[in-house]
Structure formats: structure tokens, C-alpha cells
Hints:
The complex is a heterodimer.
Chain A: E1 5-7, E2 10-13, E3 19-24, E4 31-37, E5 44-50, E6 53-56, E7 65-68, E8 75-79, E9 88-95, E10 104-105, E11 109-113
Parallel strand pairs in A: 2-11
Antiparallel strand pairs in A: 1-3, 3-8, 4-5, 4-9, 5-6, 7-8, 9-10, 9-11
Chain B: E1 3-5, E2 10-14, E3 19-21, E4 24-26, E5 33-39, E6 46-52, E7 59-61, E8 64-69, E9 74-79, E10 88-95, E11 102-103, E12 107-112
Parallel strand pairs in B: 2-12
Antiparallel strand pairs in B: 1-4, 3-9, 5-6, 5-10, 7-8, 8-9, 10-11, 10-12
Amino acid sequence: xxxxxxxxxxxxxxxxxxxxxxxxxxxxxxxxxxxxxxxxxxxxxxxxxxxxxxxxxxxxxxxxxxxxxxxxxxxxxxxxxxxxxxxxxxxxxxxxxxxxxxxxxxxxxxxxxx
Amino acid sequence: xxxxxxxxxxxxxxxxxxxxxxxxxxxxxxxxxxxxxxxxxxxxxxxxxxxxxxxxxxxxxxxxxxxxxxxxxxxxxxxxxxxxxxxxxxxxxxxxxxxxxxxxxxxxxxxxx
Lengths: 114, 113
């Protein structure tokens, strides 16, 4: 069974530029999570999807961050414009039945904003 | 409010030594889950164990063991006879609700050959 796929693995951009991250969850997993992991910290939830619906986006900074999960499979997380403080790892995870107990994580995208 | 504290930021031990990673949690709920994850240099979080609040039995899996003590709100993780491949960042996590997990800040473990 293929795991959670994320791309790109690494991204370097200049501040004020836009950037997008892509996630393909495990087949059959209806729930998808985006996490932010700052250096030396644990992951923090940004947004959770149940199929196409964003059911928890309370921690997503909506002024510059947006996400979508069209057709309830792949998801894209976007930042526009990026700021220096956005440098971090962005992790995607998925689970089959909406419980965080059985989350499977992708390798993450390491973003560097210069 | 739920909280997870991993007081050890970084630990270095020589290969074959035993090492214990500490985790202290705070929760007001009587029903909750505790987790340990491993994050190797490749970046993905690898699930190691989940324990619910009603099961205080210690668990052993190969060289890994976990000690859950509700009286001290701790869920410590011990690696016996450590190996270089155990080098990683280890996260303790807590879930009060089935749809959300709160992670600690992690402990970076270096196993020196």
C-alpha cells in the first residue's frame, strides 16, 4: 500500500512569492490533515478535511493561507504571499475514518523563505 | 486544556546503552489517548504506539517499552540496547478528542557509534 505522498519535498522561495504544496493521501482515506511543524517543535494542525469539506480550519491563517481538496482526494495548501516566518515543514496526514488515532503521515515539504 | 511536555530537548547516548525519553501530559478528561511517534531524518512521522487512558499496562515491543503511570501523568519510552538507527526525533502526543492530536516539542535522540 502506497503511503501519503507529498511534493515538492523541498522549496526555496523569496518572501512575498506564492507557494503551493500538494498531498496525495492513502487510497480510501477520507480524512486529510495539514500540519505545520516549526523547527524544534511538534506538528500543529492547520486544517482537517472530511472528504471535500474543511471541518476544522480554525488554526489556518486565512489572510495568506488557503487550502482545497477537490474531489475529496488530493489536496493543495497555498501560501500567498509567503513571509520569512513561514519557513517550516508542512506535513500532510490521512486517516480512514476521521480519527486522528490512525493517522499516517507523509514525508513533508520543507519550505525556506528568504 | 491539554498539554504535553517533553523536558528533554536532546539526548546523546553511546550505542547499546539504554535510554528513556520522558513525557508528562496534562488533561482534564478521563478518557484520552497517548502516543509516541518517531521522526527520522527523512521527515515522516512514524507511529510507534497508542495507549488509552484505561489501560495502564506497560508494553514491550522488541527493544522498545513504554511505562504509563496515570498517578504521575507520565508516559515514558525506553529503548533498550540502543542502535544508531534509533537516532531520530521522538514525539509524545495526547488526544482527548478523536479528531485532534496535540504533540509535544519532541526529544532529539543521538545514538553514537
